[in-house]
Write a structure and sequence with these properties.
Layout: H1 2-16, E1 28-30, E2 50-54, E3 63-68, E4 76-84, H2 88-98, E5 106-120, E6 123-136, E7 139-151, H3 157-181
Parallel strand pairs: 1-4, 2-5, 3-5
Antiparallel strand pairs: 3-4, 5-6, 6-7
Length: about 180
């Protein structure tokens, strides 16, 4: 009889919701953070840079990608509850435009790699590889391939997001330096 009474009480608590406090977790949306500089002159749109970032089809979604190099280097995984606010090419393009570093430039960027790679279970790095073409009036002036990587502070989605936020800002600085080297600044 005690078993029946105890079972009935547990069942009643579960039905009322007081015995269960499981709250489903909803996806969290991420971007690269607040722009470090928003120095584009809003009144003079002639100085606005023309930047176009393109990528392979698989990078045009909002999932944060990772790859476990130590166990299956051909398998791509995705974080379930952490997503980009927009596809990485779009976020990267907006970061470059809002940085204010590329006034009067026409840049075409092809994003090739944008993923977190795990060398071991507790060791990951953010990897960003892209090629860029800079255009002057009526012609391509130069092109360059960039490969950037950074160890992530933590081997998880949070580490990936923070690593990519730092890496994309570093990419903007590297692009600016590259343009300055040839006098295209």
């Amino acid at each position: 009889m005690n078993y029946l009474l105890t079972g009935w009480l547990v069942f009643a608590m579960l039905l009322s919701g007081t015995g269960c406090s499981i709250v489903p977790r909803h996806p969290v949306l991420h971007d690269f953070g607040v722009p470090a500089s928003t120095s584009i002159d809003k009144g003079n749109l002639d100085n606005k840079p023309t930047i176009n970032v393109d990528a392979p089809t698989w990078l045009w979604d909002d999932r944060i990608r990772y790859r476990l190099l130590y166990s299956s280097s051909t398998r791509v995984g995705f974080y379930t509850l952490d997503l980009w606010l927009a596809p990485p090419p779009e976020l990267f393009e907006q970061l470059l435009i809002s940085s204010g570093k590329f006034r009067n430039h026409s840049l075409v960027i092809w994003l090739r790699d944008f993923e977190q790679q795990f060398d071991a279970p507790g060791r990951a790095r953010a990897v960003l590889r892209f090629s860029i073409e800079a255009y002057g009036p009526n012609k391509k002036t130069k092109s360059q391939e960039f490969y950037l990587e950074q160890l992530t502070a933590t081997p998880d989605a949070s580490g990936a997001v923070n690593g990519f936020a730092r890496l994309t800002r570093q990419a903007a600085d590297r692009i600016q330096a590259w343009l300055s080297e040839s006098g295209n600044n």
